[in-house]
Specification:
With about 260 residues, the protein is of the alpha+beta class. It contains 9 helices and 9 strands.
């Protein structure tokens, strides 16, 4: 695998230059991705990696719209007083965030938006997963490299909790999909309940990693939350929960589709 540090000024940086970025390419095994995330953690104390997953161009496009829809770039006069000259043009604020100095504003705004977020709210949004979507998900659990659109972008996000890294690359724009606040709630819930830390976001999927492979108890608990998130009916629940548990069992990673 090739892992190249690009800084924060590269064209197409998903965070629009708010965070540093690595480019990851030529991966032949999913463990290489996880090793890259571990390297980023080691090289950048106080930061969390956030990796692009599926369809980076589409994810970048919808993220831009998602940022606007939740007013993530909103600033106050006090904010402006503390920003460096490069944030201004002819004395006027540029109006959109593209520097590291502005990222703390995004984090603050995102924290305010997500303060009351809950997993139950995400479940109540009404997301469903049909037979085709389930088959796709099982396929990605079995062959995870198939999900990844290489080369990947790996953002270096200066936040304490992995779920907070979504402030750098929020996604979920269309009304039928889970939005940025829902995705944060799901990520926080999986971390608190099952030990899965957010490591990536794409145009349709979120990616998670835990320190150890899921045992049967963890796999069953994840399957129960999976059924709740996708509003699985009582008639479908038993068989689907078994399918999900088997796809999670013995693996450290978990993908979740956040679009309808």
């Amino acid at each position: 695998m090739d892992m190249q540090f690009c800084g924060n000024a590269t064209p197409g940086n998903p965070s629009e230059g708010l965070c540093d970025e690595y480019r990851l390419s030529t991966m032949t095994h999913i463990d290489e991705l996880f090793a890259a995330c571990a390297q980023i953690l080691a090289r950048h104390p106080g930061c969390r990696p956030l990796v692009s997953l599926d369809d980076l161009p589409q994810a970048r496009y919808t993220s831009g719209h998602a940022r606007q829809s939740i007013d993530l770039d909103q600033v106050t006069e006090l904010d402006l007083a503390g920003l460096p000259p490069e944030c201004f043009e002819d004395g006027e604020y540029v109006g959109f965030m593209t520097t590291k100095a502005e990222f703390p504003i995004c984090v603050r705004n995102f924290a305010a938006l997500t303060a009351g977020a809950s997993f139950s709210d995400a479940c109540s949004h009404g997301l469903t997963l049909d037979a085709e979507g389930l088959a796709e998900w099982v396929g990605y659990q079995q062959e995870p490299l198939a999900l990844l659109d290489q080369p990947l972008s790996a953002l270096v996000v200066p936040v304490a909790q992995a779920c907070e890294a979504l402030a750098a690359f929020p996604n979920g724009y269309f009304s039928c999909d889970l939005g940025p606040v829902h995705n944060f709630a799901v990520a926080r819930h999986l971390a608190q309940r099952h030990g899965y830390q957010l490591i990536g976001v794409g145009a349709a999927y979120l990616g998670f990693l835990r320190a150890t492979a899921a045992d049967p108890e963890t796999a069953r608990a994840v399957a129960a939350d999976f059924c709740a998130l996708y509003n699985v009916t009582d008639e479908q629940r038993e068989g689907l929960a078994d399918t999900v548990a088997q796809a999670v069992l013995g693996r450290t990673y978990l993908w979740l589709r956040y679009v309808e």
